[in-house]
Design a protein that fits this description.
The chain has about 350 residues and is α+β, with helices and mostly antiparallel strands. The protein has 9 helices and 15 strands. It has a 5-stranded antiparallel sheet. Strand 14 and strand 15 form a beta hairpin. Helix 2 crosses helix 3 and helix 4 packs across helix 8. About 35% of the residues are buried. The structure holds flavin mononucleotide (FMN).
């Protein structure tokens, strides 16, 4: 089983993260992690402030001569040029601000924002890079793509750029849908004996755990509700690679709906918790859409769950040990699956 934790604030000195239970023998370079972080940081729809970050990841432990050792992996990303904004008793609508202020008994929304901010997802991507690399070395391909940006479906980078520009000029923001797929997964990951062993419930938690993600579906998802059983069962892709909480040997397909970024450049009406006067909460540096960046985070969050499920099923403290067991399982189950 893999476990991970992150710490750090948006305007703090750094973000840190620990990944534990990761096998030895996985070769990974800082350049590989940087490339993943760059995909998140420079995704379409992000604000100009992203250019100020470098997102250079320092590997503090768990790596020796470029290969994981089996020891806990500790990572650090320094925040560059960040000054803590002044205290504010004006919660931003659609954010963690109001419930967070009530929860922690504070009149300073900044105290809440600092940790609730999606800046933290940079560390999830850095930790997820290790899972992605492990899966890649075992021939399992995890990918993500944006299926819709606002009302535009199958967004191409060109059409998305035009739509984002139009939204930005109009002082608006956009939501969207992204998909995460995993190919060449062995059958039998996850379980059905308890609800929390079901792989679908674990993937849902990981993906709904991304800031701004409000919808999750597997395979045919919500569209299945309108279909007759005959039509639905005729298409194996409707299962999305999961049956009974376990991988079934087919490609895994997950989709997430991301809400439009709530931080509007023209402001959104809120109530100051000190004065109870109505005031505009203005977000000048907000992203126009988080969907492209969230897709990258989703890919890494899913990779962490899949790698964890793989390690639970096959054990193995080192990559060669894990690979041997997985190859044997693939050979055995392949004999059956190929004949279906
Ligand atoms: C990578 C990423 C970047 C985001 N950037 C912004 C932003 O610039 N401005 C904003 O208002 N929301 C942004 N969001 C969305 C907010 O973090 C999210 O709306 C907020 O956490 C509340 O969402 P929740 O109700 O789903 O938790 C971003 C989300 C992600 C994943």
């Amino acid at each position: 089983m893999l476990r991970y934790l992150t710490a750090g604030e948006s305007h703090g000195e750094y973000l840190s993260g620990v990944l534990e239970g990761f096998p030895s023998g996985v070769g990974i370079t800082p350049a590989y992690i940087s490339a993943q972080l760059r995909r998140r940081r420079l995704a379409p729809g992000r604000s100009a402030r992203q250019a100020l970050e470098t997102d250079r990841c320092e590997i503090l432990s768990g790596l020796g001569r470029g290969t994981t050792t089996g020891a806990p992996i500790a990572l650090l990303i320094r925040n560059s040029g960040r000054q803590l904004p002044p205290a504010s008793s004006l919660p931003r609508p659609g954010h963690a601000d109001l419930p967070g202020m009530l929860k922690y008994g504070t009149l300073d929304a900044v105290q809440v924002r600092e940790r609730a901010s999606a800046r933290e997802t940079a560390m999830r991507v850095a930790l997820g890079s290790f899972a992605l690399r492990l899966l890649e070395l075992l021939g399992i391909k995890v990918r993500s793509r944006v299926l819709a940006l606002g009302s535009l479906s199958a967004a191409t980078p060109e059409s998305a750029a035009a739509l984002l520009l139009r939204a930005r000029r109009a002082g608006d923001t956009l939501g969207g849908v992204f998909e995460v797929t995993a190919e060449n997964l062995p059958a039998g990951l996850g379980g059905f004996a308890q609800w929390d062993r079901r792989l679908g419930s674990r993937l849902a938690a990981a993906l709904l755990g991304i800031n701004g993600v409000k919808g999750f579906e597997v395979g045919g998802g919500f569209a299945l509700a309108a279909l007759g059983g005959r039509a639905a069962s005729g298409d194996p892709s409707f299962s999305g690679g999961l049956d009974g909480g376990m991988t079934n040997g087919r490609a895994l397909t997950l989709r997430c709906a991301v809400k439009p970024v709530p931080g509007l450049p023209g402001g959104a009406l809120s109530t100051d918790l000190r004065t109870f006067k109505k005031k505009l909460s203005v977000s000048k540096t907000s992203d126009t859409s988080a969907v492209f960046a969230a897709a990258v985070v989703g890919e890494h969050a899913a990779a962490l769950e899949l790698a964890s499920a793989l390690l639970e099923k096959f054990g193995g403290d080192s990559l060669p040990e894990l690979r041997r067991r997985l190859d044997e399982w693939r050979k055995d189950t392949g004999k059956i699956l190929r004949r279906l």
